[in-house]
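pasting for ref
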Amino acid sequence: MKAIASVISKSLSGLLIALSFSSCATMFSGTKADIFIDGEVDEPVTINSSAGEYKDVALPALVEVKRRHLNGQHIQITSEHHSFDDIVLEKTFNVWALPSAIIFGEGFFIDLITNAVSRPKYDQFFIMPMDSLSAADSQLRKREAVMVSTMGPEVRARLRRQQLPVKIPLHEVNITLGVGPNQADRSTRRFVDDIIQPRHMETDGECGDIFGDSYIVGKMEYNYRLNRKWDIGAMMAWGYSSENYTNEYFYSIEENKQNHPGTITQGYSRCRSFSFAPSVRYTWYETRTYRLFSRISMGVMRHHLELDTEEWKYDNKTQPYGSIISEANFDETKWRIAYQVSPIGIYVGAGPLKFVAEMGYGYIGVCNVGIAFCF
């Protein structure tokens, strides 16, 4: 158990380091950008961009371009019977680069290297064949052969679904950190209350109680993607919660205080959980830059609860903690079924490194965030 806890602790440290150097624009926007092209064309076209060649596609279509050297970049369109003007791109600032610059600092330099600080100023274009223009139009350029257009969100969503990569990463490893109430909270509270209530102790200090008396949970997970909709895997989760409790009793009359000094009772709880569980996830919506999923998981949890109490008396003013009157240690280990139900989760990122988050209830907490590597 100590070895597993050590591995997870190191992994969580690695997660925090990775997040501190993360680049928001590169992770969320990727090193490529989407360009939507529509037009008055009666045959398939071939589109050449910096990201590659798209042969025999029907318009409207979605193509990718590299963010490097984005300003002034050309997209060429050809077909068997028509000729077209090139689409020439302009760039503007990508707002996803702001968190990297303001919060992380180091990540902004990664965004500069990948040019993720830039995005296309216009990402929708309408093209017309040059030979379909009248002589007056083609000579005097009264009609533009390439125009900026407005494409409906339904069409954009459909094109994104159609342009999903044929080959998807089959393996995924992620490391996340969870907070909020979880499955271990109720038994922890029962264990603690049975000890502190007879001693009239109150909470003095808390650790990790962001949403009430809850755990901080670190998770390591592996998933294998069976197809676009389903993937299976397993995860290990390590949770920790600690609290301090105090009860002080003083005599208000000085004479009584000298003969019967006051007492202080202190308690300190350390509660740990370790869970291992297989998992099934269902992807219900996906684009090239993000994916929405739901999860259900069931396995086993080892729950270790400890609470130490000490009662002291006040001997004098210079030595407030004089003599110890009594001390006790309470230790309990429970095994139980572990479960996690997450109605909604999201992956964001266009490359192998992605941001992952999910919300639900079970042994990994209500809110879980981290990074995932897909390969």
